[in-house]
Every structure is written in structure tokens, then in C-alpha cells.
Design a protein that fits this description.
heterodimer, A: alpha/beta, Aconitase, domain 3, 2 domains, five-stranded parallel β-sheet, globular, B: 166 residues, alpha/beta, Aconitase, domain 4, 7 strands, 26% helix
């Protein structure tokens, strides 16, 4: 029987043919934990589960990205304890302050690969679907069980298919497709399901990461872009992993990219999405470019293209937090970073930045932020009385130029 | 009797416990019990009593993977959460922690502040007006995990995952 990508990957991980609805125990190929939850997970592993060692020192990745560098003595102490634990456990993969956001880093490091089951202590672990992995976010107890056993249990998800046709127009990008999908599916439209993104073979791995990370915002258990195109040039794709005609989809959402307009998600819910053109003139205090959804080199380059030779509006500040050190290095070596700085933007340490509202640019009451990230919930980036609008990097850059929410076409040469 | 605390749709984990109040950020981790709904509903944490029941709207618990959101609810003694649909990671985390969840829409039938009694062994909920509501029976694997007291005791007791052959 034809299978979805999630069914194929979970069948291989379970060692038997499985289908949507089955409850299965699967092998986990890679487990990611980050600084924010590592202290609790380590305690659960040793004290609650009574395990002495992680199951495989090569299949655990520890990333210090959520509060990096440490903002308080408390977080610094937790990070120091986590580093010590990594050494004691002899864990191979520690990515410390400044290396970047877990999902981006594990893809860059080729630790996350097509056909794998990747579990992470972060909901945006759906991002590993950018390279055709079944990536899923889990809580601390589930992660501790995985560290102890190398296995987890789950219900094999149904699949919601996004079927894109055509090409983006100038000033429109993967973020607009992702937000449009949230507009149609709403925040619960893919709950317990895997989201497959079809018709986007032309996208870079970075743009696929945008779609894969946004999959959780419609409730997805995973968000998988078929690994044809860019990932296949760089990574081995198992011959059993391919889109099969006749696979069963819970629902298909068709999107015509040729006519897709820039989208904007308005506070305080990600699925509160409209065409940017239909939003009135909104003054903006902060433009924040970063996160696992849109903080990569490509995103900085898209912003730089709009900002080149120009200056951001007086009264608006622009903060750029690269998703990884690799992204920052690329932006440095080709002048992208110089362009952003010359326009008046400033730069932070690669990592999650203010996305979780803990440091590096949290918002004051009443402030309005245009954010290239993935959540605009009340209080997400600091004050519960701040307003967060989610957009593409192109819209963010156009907005930085004018000081109010702006369509990229209106400022593009 | 248990009090009903009613919430709307799409209650996200940033509303349950904002990231700024994560155990990672706290000097004293036990303070987590002070923070459920600290901004979204400041009267909740000081007044909730052990056994009280949350009745939520659609897509309860959406957002991040933070287990400290359901953990904070467990610490204050929330006896059950009832909603038409739970977001996946929250559902899983709450199950792992042993918090009873019932997937049914009672937002029309129950009022905030109403007093009820819930018999977890039968799923029979009796309101202060004597109305009886039979909650849907959760699947076997969920009942097994609750009976063990959460996924950690379950795994330690049985040495296997739910749904896996004994």
C-alpha cells in the first residue's frame, strides 16, 4: 500500500510496516536537547529513571542556544552544569554559545539526514523535515526516556499535504507560503498530523527549514519537505524515501504561488493571517530578524538586498540575530552584514535571541515588533502588552526602511 | 467539590507559563507553582485548589514543548483538563505527568466557577445542580499510564512503552 513520508520513515524506524493510527515504538536516530530544558532532562534521566548513561554518545546533541550567551548567574550556572554533564557522559556533539539554533546547526552539521527520526526538546524540531527527516518536538520526560533507551513511542500520524504550484513573485518567499498555510489550516488544522510540503523542489534547504519549522504552528507532529532538489545534492537519500502516488492524505491545501501575496500574521495568534496589502498603516518600533524560521544567511541576504545603500527609519531599530555561526560567517564574507550594519541594523550572538522573551531585545509594554520568527503569542517576546507581527525577511526589511509595515514592492528598486 | 476554571480556544503554553518564568530562569524552581496563567489569568494560581478542573476550548496547550506548562498545573493540583482538542505535545506531556485529560467539548455545559464532582474511575462528572455528564473513556494506553502515575512509573514498572507488547 502506498505510504506517506511519515509512514515510510516510521515503518523503517519501527522495523515493520506501519500506517496512520498505529501506536508504535520506534528507534530514534538523533536526540537533541538544549540549554533551557537540559537541567530538568538530566535530572529525570538519572534520578527519576535511574539511568546512568545516555544510550549512544554519538546520537545525542546538546545545543546551548536558548539563552546564549547566558543572561543571568542562574542560566550561566545551568549551562556550566550541562557542559560538565556532557563531558562526564562523553557525549560527542556539544554546540556551545554562538554556534547557533539547534535545528539549523544539526542540519548544517549533517547530523540530521533524510529518513531519520529526530526528536528534540523543542517544538520547532519539526524543522528537521527540511532535509526529509521525521523531526518532532517532545517534552522533558519523553526526551529523558529517549536518552535512556534510544527509543520512543508514538501514534503514526495522518498527513496533511500542502500542494504548491508555480513560483514566488519578487518580494514573496517561503515564509509567505508557510503563513498562508496557517491561514487556511488554522492553528489546529494539522494537530497530531504530519505536514508534507509538495511542489517546492526549487527551494533551498534554508527555505525548507522555514516551512518545516512553521509546521508546528498548525499543530503538526512533523513537517516534511520531500528530499528531492537541494538536500539530495548534498545528502544521501534512502531509496525507500519518496513521495508515492496513491498515499492517503487527510487533506490537501493547494496554493498558487504565482498569485501569492506577502502575508502577515497579526497578534496574538500565528493563524491570524491576512494579505499584507489589507493591513493599514502600522508604526513599528522594532524589526527583529532571526530564529530557526527566518534567521539564516538567505534571510539576511534578502533583507540586505532591500536595505542596500539605504538607511532604516528614524525611530525604528533593527536587530539581527543569525540562526547560526555559519550563516553569520557567510553574511560577513560576502558583505551582507556590512550592508545591514551600514543601514543601521545591529547584530546579536547566533541563537534563539528574544524569541522566547528572555534576553537580547525583549519588548516593552506598548511596543510594536515586526518579527521574522514563528510565534506572536501575547508575552512571547517580553511584555504581554507588546504587539508582535510575523512576516518574511523581505517585509521586515521594507518595514525597517519606512518605520511602518510595508510591502516589499513599494520599496524595491 | 471541585471548581471549574474555564478558558477559551487556542490556550498556548506561553499563556500557561511564559518562557520568562521557566524553571531555567527561576532562582527557586518550586516557585513554578506560582506562575500558571500568571499574565493570562492572574487570579488562577492564588485561588486554584487541588482537584479543580480546567475546561478549555479548542486546541488547548498549543505552542511550545515546555513540559513545565503542564507541570505547573500539576504542582497546583489540577485534577483534570477537559477540552474538545488538545495540542499534541501538551497532550503527551500531560499524559506523561499523569494529569487526566478528557477530549470533549464542555464549554457550553459548564460555567466558570461552577462546583462539580468528578469520579475519575468512572468518568462521571456531577454538577452542583445535579446534572450528570459522562466523560468519554480515554483509550486503554492512556488509562494504563494514569494508573501507573505517569510515564516514568509506567516504564519503571513494566519496562516497556504504552501500546508495546508486554
Amino acid at each position: 500500500m502506498p505510504q506517506t513520508l511519515a509512514e515510510q520513515i516510521l515503518s523503517h524506524a519501527a522495523g515493520r510496516t506501519v500506517q496512520a493510527g498505529d501506536i508504535v515504538t520506534v528507534r530514534v536516530d538523533l536526540a537533541m536537547i538544549h540549554d533551557s530544558l537540559a537541567p530538568g532532562i538530566i535530572r529525570l534521566l538519572h534520578e527519576d529513571l535511574g539511568a546512568e548513561r545516555v544510550w549512544d554518545v554519538d546520537k545525542v546533541a546538546v545545543v546551548i542556544d536558548h539563552v546564549a550567551p547566558a543572561a543571568t548567574v542562574q542560566t550561566a550556572t545551568h549551562q556550566a552544569n550541562t557542559r560538565k554533564w556532557v563531558r562526564e557522559q562523553n557525549i560527542t556533539h556539544l554546540f556551545d554559545v554562538g554556534r547557533g539554533i539547534s535545528h539549523q546547526v544539526l542540519v548544517e552539521e549533517r547530523l540530521a539526514r533524510p529518513g531519520m527520526v529526530v526528536a528534540g526538546s523543542d517544538s520547532h524540531s519539526t524543522g528537521y523535515g527540511a532535509v526529509g527527516a521525521f523531526g518532532t518536538g517532545m517534552g522533558s520526560t519523553d526526551m529523558a526516556l529517549i536518552l535512556a533507551t534510544g527509543r520512543t513511542w508514538m501514534r503514526v500520524p495522518e498527513t496533511v499535504r500542502i500542494l504548491a504550484r508555480g513560483q514566488f513573485r519578487p518580494g514573496v518567499s517561503a515564509k509567505d507560503l508557510g503563513l498562508y498555510a496557517a491561514r487556511v489550516l488554522r492553528a489546529d488544522g494539522a494537530t497530531y498530523a504530519s505536514v508534507e510540503w509538495h511542489g517546492v523542489d526549487f527551494l533551498s534547504v534554508g527555505d525548507r527549514m522555514t516551512l518545516a519549522t512553521l509546521s508546528i504552528e498548525v499543530g503538526g507532529k512533523a513537517g516534511i519537505v520531500p528530499p528531492t532538489g537541494a538536500p539530495a545534492a548534498d545528502l544521501d537519500v534512502p531509496d525507500w524515501l519518496r513521495v508515492e502516488d496513491g498515499a492517503t492524505y487527510l487533506r490537501t491545501v493547494e496554493v498558487d504561488l504565482d498569485t501569492l501575496e506577502p502575508q502577515i500574521s497579526m497578534p496574538p495568534f500565528v493563524d491570524n493571517v491576512a494579505d499584507l496589502r489589507d493591513v493599514g498603516k502600522i508604526a513599528v518600533d522594532v524589526v527583529y530578524l532571526g530564529t530557526c524560521t527566518n534567521g539564516r544567511y538567505e534571510d539576511m541576504a534578502a533583507a540586505a538586498q532591500i536595505l542596500r545603500g539605504r538607511t532604516i527609519a528614524k525611530g525604528t531599530r533593527m536587530i539581527v540575530v543569525p540562526a547560526s555561526s555559519e550563516s553569520l560567517q557567510r553574511a560577513t564574507s560576502d558583505g551582507t552584514l556590512t550592508t545591514l550594519l551600514a543601514a543601521g541594523a545591529t547584530i546579536g550572538t547566533p541563537g534563539c535571541g528574544a524569541c522566547i522573551g528572555r534576553h537580547m531585545g525583549v519588548l516593552a509594554p506598548g511596543e510594536v515588533c515586526v518579527f521574522t520568527g514563528n510565534r506572536n503569542f501575547r508575552g512571547r517576546m517580553g511584555s504581554p502588552d507588546a504587539q508582535i507581527y510575523l512576516t518574511s525577511p523581505e517585509v521586515a526589511a521594507a518595514t525597517a526602511l519606512t518605520g511602518y509595515i510595508t510591502h516589499p514592492q513599494d520599496v524595491m528598486a | 467539590m471541585a471548581r471549574i476554571w474555564k478558558f477559551g480556544s487556542d490556550v498556548n503554553t506561553d499563556q500557561i507559563v511564559p518562557g520568562r518564568y521557566a524553571p531555567y530562569m527561576l532562582k527557586n524552581e518550586d516557585d513554578l507553582r506560582k506562575y500558571p496563567f500568571i499574565e493570562a489569568r492572574p487570579d488562577f494560581a492564588p485561588n486554584v485548589q487541588p482537584g479543580d478542573i480546567i475546561v478549555g476550548g479548542n486546541n488547548f496547550g498549543c505552542g511550545s514543548s515546555r513540559e513545565y506548562a503542564p507541570l505547573a498545573l500539576k504542582l497546583v493540583g489540577v485534577g483534570a483538563i477537559i477540552a474538545p482538542l488538545f495540542a499534541r505535545i501538551f497532550f503527551r506531556n500531560a499524559l506523561n505527568l499523569g494529569i487526566p485529560l478528557f477530549t470533549v467539548d464542555l464549554t457550553e455545559q459548564l460555567q466558570d466557577g461552577q462546583q462539580v464532582q468528578l469520579d475519575l474511575s468512572t468518568g462521571l462528572l456531577t454538577t452542583d445542580t445535579g446534572e450528570q455528564i459522562q466523560l468519554p473513556e480515554p483509550p486503554l494506553f492512556m488509562r494504563e499510564v494514569w494508573q501507573a502515575g505517569g510515564i516514568v512509573p509506567f516504564y519503571r514498572q513494566y519496562g516497556r512503552f504504552p501500546g508495546e507488547a508486554a
